[in-house]
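Running this now, will post back.
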Amino acid sequence: MFPSLQVCVIVSVCLTCLLPQCVHCSGCKNPPPAKNFTNSRYYGLWYEIGKIQTAGGAFFEKDCVCTTIDVKPLSNSDVRGDASVLNSCRKKTPQGTFLNATGKLSDESPAGKWKEGFAWFAPKVDYTIIALDEDYAVEYDCGTTLGFTNYCIHILSRKPTQSPEVTQKLLTFAESLGLNTENLKYVQTLQTGCW
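Update: finished.
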């Protein structure tokens, strides 16, 4: 095979494996950010309580436990709202391999809604904080590439635990916005034994 043809075959196989196999991909939703959103309230360490996630969205997180995100403003963020998001977890068990990926939030407009990117060659996704309180947040990210939509709904807490009633309230809110277009199951993130 010619080198360029080999690259095309490899890229095609990778895309087929990474993208969800759906016939009627419904595209991303455009929910409003939380009414009380401010950047300073979102900055800091969050523990993932659970998630609803398509296969493509789960590429990094599929084996993750002890998952956290740490949101920090980038320089000049007072003007633009740009931030870094360090996604960290352990692979399969609290003692498993440490995994991380740092994304960049940019082009904030309105407050609480950004574009998130992980590498210059990867398409950016929409990233929106749909609910925010001092103790919890709900983040929705979504992107469509080559006609395939991948999305995630992350339930976050400032502590590694959250009352089941709060979690259910946040899931019900996200569902009421029509964000779980593929009717995927909620998966609780293991946080026991992590800290």
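DSSP finds four helices and nine strands in the chain. More later if anyone needs it.
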